[in-house]
Design goal:
Layout: H1 4-9, H2 11-14, H3 44-47, H4 50-86, H5 95-125, H6 137-148, H7 154-167, H8 171-175, H9 184-214, H10 217-223, H11 226-235, H12 239-249, H13 253-263, H14 267-287, H15 293-301
Helix pairs in contact: 4-5, 4-7, 4-12, 5-9, 6-11, 7-9, 7-11, 11-15, 12-13
């Protein structure tokens, strides 16, 4: 169980909000993202682009990733953390838990700031034109669900959304800081983000358990299947942005579509989806969500489990 009292008392030591802020430029001598984390980077057509084409490809991936982060922190996690902070009794949280949620809001504001800085640095330094990035699919899915339910259920729905986001342990935060081909400032920012997310992960795992234990049968029937929809929404590739980046790197539209088709469909894509969902699925299994018929059926329908 996450110790929120300790988390509050040690926030000034543990949170990277308190590190000296250095929003430094990035260098053209490095990549902006790790090719090992991008399935399309390993395709023969992408490899044939040469060093400059591959550099531009990674720059577009990094641009999309940081836009994703800004959208997520501002419109997804901060509102959910505020819901927990202001309505703790609805989730079985203590006053210390509620206070720690405000620490999370501070952390996420800094993550958004640093991601926005990296986005701007990529545009300024790596000859990537600024893009009008579409709203990420996960936010469209959240808004569709919110619009379909009564206002009294929307706060809890936002928390379910955050439960998924904060318990998915993606390879990006784990592995990118160790790839020395990537710009050192990018690696530092990703490393600091990973440190904070380790604490957030533990806290939201606690929120998931306590929420599930408190929900009655009707609430479980409503919120349980949302986990599958949100996991899929977070992890499914943004095909439009991927195609745009491949074309900017030098591929023809037809070749870009071929790369996407061969990298993001079929058994390997399903295996990748399940691999990236494994941490959240493990929590859902431990707290009993997979034993709930409607929730399990939703996970099967999304291809997350058999």
């Amino acid at each position: 169980m996450f110790n929120t009292k300790s988390g509050i008392e040690n926030w000034h030591l543990q949170s990277t909000v308190h590190h000296q802020i250095k929003l430094l430029p990035i260098s053209r001598d490095y990549l902006a993202f790790s090719p090992d984390l991008v399935p399309t980077s390993k395709h023969d057509l992408t490899l044939k682009l040469g060093r400059e084409g591959q550099r531009r490809h990674q720059a577009y991936v990094a641009l999309a990733y940081n836009e994703f982060t800004v959208w997520l922190e501002d419109d997804g996690i901060a509102p959910a953390a505020l819901e927990l902070a202001t309505q703790p009794e609805a989730f079985g949280l203590s006053p210390d838990d509620a206070l720690f949620c405000r620490c999370i809001i501070g952390d996420e504001a800094m993550h958004s700031l640093k991601a926005a800085h990296l986005r701007n640095a990529i545009v300024a330094t790596l000859d990537v034109p600024p893009e009008v990035t579409p709203r990420p699919h996960f936010l469209w899915e959240l808004e569709r669900i919110l619009a379909s339910i009564d206002a009294e259920y929307r706060g809890c729905t936002r928390v379910v959304f955050a439960n998924v986001s904060e318990t998915l342990i993606t390879d990006t935060l784990v592995k990118l800081p160790h790839d020395h081909r990537v710009d050192p400032n990018v690696r530092t920012i990703m490393h600091e983000h990973a440190i904070d997310e380790g604490r957030h992960n533990a806290f939201f795992r606690m929120v998931m358990k306590q929420s599930w234990d408190r929900w009655n049968a009707d609430e479980r029937q409503m919120y349980g299947p949302m986990y599958a929809r949100f996991i899929r929404a977070f992890l499914q590739p943004d095909i439009t942005m991927i195609e745009r980046g491949l074309c900017a790197a030098g591929l023809t539209p037809d070749d870009a579509k071929k790369v996407i088709r061969e990298c993001h469909t079929g058994e390997s894509a399903t295996a990748g989806l399940r691999h990236n969902a494994r941490a959240t699925l493990s929590v859902l299994n431990r707290i009993g969500v997979l034993d709930h018929a409607a929730s399990r059926a939703a996970l099967v329908a999304e291809g997350l489990i058999d």
